[in-house]
Amino acid sequence: MLTVKTPLRRTIVPLIISAFFAPLSLAEQGFDAFPPSKESPIATQVTPMFITLGFDDNLEINGLSWIMDLLANNHNPNGHDAYANRDLRASFFMHCEPAMENEDVKTLWRQLVQIGHEVANHSQTHPDDKVNYNPLQSWMTAEQWQEEVTLCNKLLTRSTEEGGIGVETVFGFRAPFMTYNDNTLNAVVNNGIRYDVSFPAGITPDQDGTNNIWPHTLENGSPSHAMAASGGWKPVIDNYPGLWEIPLHTLIVPPDSKMEHYGLNYSLRDKIAGRIGYFDPNNGKGDNFDWNLYFTPNWGAAGLSEDDVVAIYQYNLDLRLEGNRAPLTLGLHSAF
Ligand SMILES: [Zn+2]
Fold it and tell me: What is the average pLDDT across 133-142?
């Protein structure tokens, strides 16, 4: 996990404003239907640049403690919003079952709640609902998905005295391995969860990093999900009116012409293309999750250095600041 220290400190920290609460407050104001849009809900020039950090699993004490310290020791910039100058807040998507009998983990999870971080649902047993790596073939029933989401919510919302974590409301969900279908999403809705952050995003050819889609509701699907479904790597799904999708956009790898600007003297696109078969060096659209960026190529990841990842984060932040300021959402693991 030490490998993410530098990128977080150098790139992300100065501009973080909050976790995933902006669209939720829109929902509370009556924006129950908010279609996919490239326009900021307010004038772009006064739109805060949101960076949202979502950490998955959270069962490893050292990594989780390190992230908590990092967030506590950095502050949002000056401003007029409720988060100005306050310690950073992040979202934590919990793999629940292993925590149930682990008091050390539960103590840290309760601290997250007390500090004001978001504690969200990442399922009870972290199942991989694919058959032979094919996301179109699932082995889990609707009942199994219901149980996965419900049992995790129960642990999170039960009081501390009853052995729970004491979360008042579970707002968010991320599917393990980002593998979801209608059974998953129905279980999410049935449990009163308000947003998902599992869909592919930013992959349609028109989205270039400056014009990514803002968080939206799912009464009419998602353009990137539709593209993935037509490409045969996501199942077709129903519509989910009122359920928000927070786009975890593809991160665009800086083109060769920009590498010097980010302090590197080689082609990052070529480096990744040599390791990741599905990476297209022409559009540069790559993975978002820390595991995919850092882990070793023989496990199917890009094996990048800290400097590489800083360059990618910085480039995607710069594209947003030049463009529509769609929130930059990063997929992370506290143990990694
Ligand atoms: Zn996970």
Answer: 96
Distance between Cα 59 and ligand 1 center (Å): 10
Span 166-179, pLDDT tens digits: 999 999 999 999 99
pLDDT on residue 32: 80
284: CA distance to ligand 1 center in Å? 25
The alpha carbon of 82 and the centre of ligand 1 are apart by a number of angstroms equal to 30
* Residues 91 and 55: beta-carbon distance below 8 Å: yes
151 CA to centre of ligand 1 in angstroms: 16
Question: What does the CA dihedral 8, 23, 197, 53 come to, rounded to 10 degrees?
Answer: 10
Closest CA to 315 of 252, 264, 256, 270: 252
Among 335, 186, 326, 333, smallest CA distance to 250 is for 326
Distance 175 CA to ligand 1 centre (A): 8
Q: What is the DSSP letter of 96?
A: -
Cα dihedral 174/177/52/282 (nearest 10):
-140
Give the Å distance between the CA of 275 and the centre of ligand 1: 23
- On the question of pLDDT at 287 being above 60, the answer is yes
